[in-house]
Amino acid sequence: MPKNRRVDRPIILGIVGDSAAGKTTLTAGIANILGADRVVTICTDDYHRYSRTERVTNGLSALDPRGNYVDILEQHIRLLRDGQAILKPVYNHHGGTLDRPEYILPKEYVILEGLLGYTTRAMRDCYDVKVYLEPIEDLRMKWKIQRDTAKRGYTAEQVVWRRCAGANGTAPSSFDRSALSPISSSSSFRRPAMPRRPARISTSAIPCARPCRTLTCRRCSTWACATD
């Protein structure tokens, strides 16, 4: 395994953010710059404990640590940092199923991207670089509709319906197609008035006290908003 010239182990990069915040896009860009032969990328969504159907049955979402093998993810990050191979689970986003595990050998750089990569202190201590993505909510929702309809088998109505259900605690009785343009000021379920913030990339560690709560719905502090 090639080694970085300054350290005698793989360099571990973490990229965390809410669903459709741009994690995979940023990861692919970094990997392209560093070189595919020097980088291995891992999506932490692969550590989902249940299939999509089972999560619905159990009343869990992809953001709930109870629905993920957080302990195995933590163990695998440590092993990769030590230069050891792992047998990584695989989550199929298109069908929402759990597929055959994959044998992963670390390279000079290891990039882990996903929802819960900073959940525990032990995880956070393994990273050499930590990035948190938080784009403007309306833009994130537009990206989410585009991605989930193109790559994950959802209809636009399902994406918006799940957002409404997660934000309000109940499913909407009817569907308003204006919701399919979340950037538009006429959208019927925009976030409550909040100070506008630019898209932000933070390289600071997530606070230790329940770091995963930074990924919950900001309206209701529930886990229900994620459709990953």
H-E string: EHEHHEEEHEHHE
Rg, alpha carbons? 18 Å
> What structural category arises from helix and sheet content?
alpha/beta
DSSP helical segment count: 6
**CATH fold annotation of the domain at 11-137 and 198-215:** Rossmann fold
Termini separation = 33 Å
Cross-sheet strand order for the largest sheet: 2-5-1-6-7
Q: How helix-rich are the residues, as a percent range?
A: 25-40%
Main beta-sheet strand count, sense and barrel state: 5 strands, mixed
**How many beta strands in the DSSP annotation?**
7
CATH class of the domain at 11-137 and 198-215: Alpha Beta
Proportion of residues in β-strands: 15-25%
Label the CATH architecture of the domain at 11-137 and 198-215: 3-Layer(aba) Sandwich
The name of the CATH superfamily of the domain at 11-137 and 198-215 reads: P-loop containing nucleotide triphosphate hydrolases
Average pLDDT: 76
Oligomer: single chain
Low-confidence stretches: 167-227
Shape: globular
